[in-house]
Amino acid sequence: MRATLLAVDVGGTKCELALFDATSTSYQSIARKRYPSGNYERLEDIIHEFLQEFSATPSYSCMGIAGVVSGGVARVTNLPWVIDEQSVAREFHLSGLHLINDLTAVCASLSLLTGDELFEIQRGDVQQGQLIGVVAPGTGLGEGVLVQGENFFFPRGSEGGHTDFGPVDEEQTELLKWMLRRRERVSYESLIAGPGIPNLYDFYREQIGMAEMEHVRDQMSRAADRTPIIFDNAFGDNPCPLCGKVVDLFLNILGAEAGNLALKLYARGGIYIGGGIVPRIADRVSFDGFLANFLAKGKMAQLMTTIPVNLIRKKDAALIGAARYGLEMLAR
User: Fold this and answer.
1) Which H or E run contains 320?
2) How many angstroms separate the CA atoms of 75 and 65, rounded?
3) Residue 44: which CATH number?
4) What is the DSSP string of 220-268?
5) How far apart, in whole angstroms, are the C-alpha atoms of residue 191 and residue 187?
6) CA atoms of 53 and 37, how far apart (whole Å)
7) pTM of the model
């Protein structure tokens, strides 16, 4: 019987599981299924259901977790789940198990992405073996790094999205002042991750005085999450100017922070934009504002033009990355 590896992408909304041949590097799954996270008390319950359905007994597993992973224990940010590496390995009789951050998993996938799985924002000049950075706005703002060469492979997620927001012009300075009247500290995540994007909307409405469109206000009054409404109404036959300004500011701040990461890492291998937000709007926006802010680094502006920037369009990059990480660890 061939050895198999179970890859798991654990998120607050969904969990995706896939089975891979542990001796193959094609990353073509043998079986795959997605589960709604909130319907289960434990991740282990989902795994049991998956393995039973596909009559599978994997030898190894790697799980990318949307949360803090430390000392073999993962805590899912938006669920009351605590996942213990040793306990899970015992329960499923695994010979090897790795728990990693979901951004570590995304970073692990990068060298596998090709063609229409990527969208080129800036061509740049790729230098092989150099550091690669990732900025991923979704439910949170993930950031990470990949170091890779012929004989080494080191992907690592970070908590860089929680660093202090730095305004780059008068409008963003006004935004920071406005936010500081409402909270003690302002991070990049509090502005350009999903839950934070309505802060940009409220800033333009309350501080700048932009008018709301009545149908947008009505939709928001009935919604638990205002972010999809903002993005939906920024485009179309009757676009909302206020929503459009939010999208522009979102991209401007994202571009500036992506440039910050590029400089801190000296990311001559490139910068990748991940997460679930930007791929949904990529075909409907201009990246001119993003790039202008990415490049606006003073004496380093010329250097910034040499750094490739790509958008990750592959929806299951974290799952494939978990499989890649697991298989790389098995080979050592």
Assistant:
1) helix 317-330
2) 8
3) 3.30.420.40
4) HHT-S--HHHHHHHTSSSS--HHHHHHHHHHHHHHHHHHHHHHHHHT-T
5) 7
6) 17
7) 0.94
Distance separating alpha carbons of residues 8 and 15, to the nearest angstrom: 7
Domain for residue 130, yes or no?
Answer: no
Residue type, 243: C
What pLDDT does residue 250 have?
A: 98
Domain tally, the chain: 2
Strand partners, 146: 132, 155
Whether 152 is covered by a domain: the verdict is no
Give the Cα separation of 186 and 152 in Å (integer). Answer: 36
Among 82, 101, 179, 211, smallest CA distance to 146 is for 101
CB 66 within 8 A of CB 76: yes
Strands of the sheet containing 60-65, edge to edge, are 31-36, 14-21, 4-10, 60-65, 96-101
Residues in Cβ contact with 141 at an 8 Å cutoff, skipping those fewer than 6 apart: 135, 160, 161, 162, 187, 188, 189, 192, 193, 275
Provide the residue count of the chain.
332
Looking at the DSSP bridge assignments, the partners of residue 63 are: 8, 99
Q: Is the pLDDT of residue 331 over 80?
A: no
CB atoms within 10 A of CB 315: 11
Is residue 107 included in any domain, yes or no? Answer: no
Asked if residue 325 and residue 293 are part of one domain, the reply reads no
**Predicted local distance difference test score (pLDDT) of residue 1:** 65
